[in-house]
Amino acid sequence: MWIYSIMSAGVLKAAPLEDNVSLVIDKSDHRLQVFLNETPVYYFAIATGKGSLTPEGEFKIANKVKNPWYLRKNIPGGDKKNPLGTRWMGLSVPNTGGYKYGIHGTNNPYSIGHSVSSGCIRMRNKDVEWLFRHIPIGTKVSIQQ
Question: Domain L,D-TPase catalytic, which positions (predicted)?
């Protein structure tokens, strides 16, 4: 996308305009949408938290971890038993440091489409790997009912 600015000599010069990327998570529909300049461009099926465990509001991607460890049970990253799957994208939920709630893969792809997690957003590993590659830290994430 390009915008034009008028220089003092009266000559038009093209200047690049950075695209705006954001994520919208719809808990009731179990869907994550990727928006580019306010237009939805990708959709992914997800799993969310039981009841109201997934926080709602406006957050940002706070951190990204490849092959995250599952610390509760000391399961190393990359292990097929790891319930976090192959990628972690932490959310800037207040007072969590970006490590309590996140968008992550799963070792249980059959959970996708359901409200079953402890609050995180689960995705199929191939889907979260795509998201991990294309969505930078600082991206706005809106989670809604």
Answer: 21-144
Is position 134 annotated as part of the catalytic site?
no
Q: Does residue 81 belong to any structural domain of this protein?
A: yes
Residue 12 located in a structural domain: no
Q: Which residues contact 96 (CB under 8 A, 6 or more apart)?
A: 90
How big is the CA angle at 71 (ends 102 and 26), to the nearest 5 degrees? 15
Cα dihedral 31, 35, 39, 44, rounded to 10, equals -30
Q: Which domain holds residue 66?
A: 21-143
- Check 30, 104, 114, 134 and give the catalytic one: 104
Q: The whole model's pTM is what? A: 0.87
Determine whether 120 is an active site residue: yes
pLDDT in tens, the chain (145 residues): 444 444 445 555 565 667 899 999 999 999 999 999 999 999 999 999 999 999 999 999 999 999 999 998 999 999 999 999 999 999 999 999 999 999 999 999 999 999 999 999 999 999 999 999 999 999 999 999 9
Q: How many domains does the chain have?
A: 1
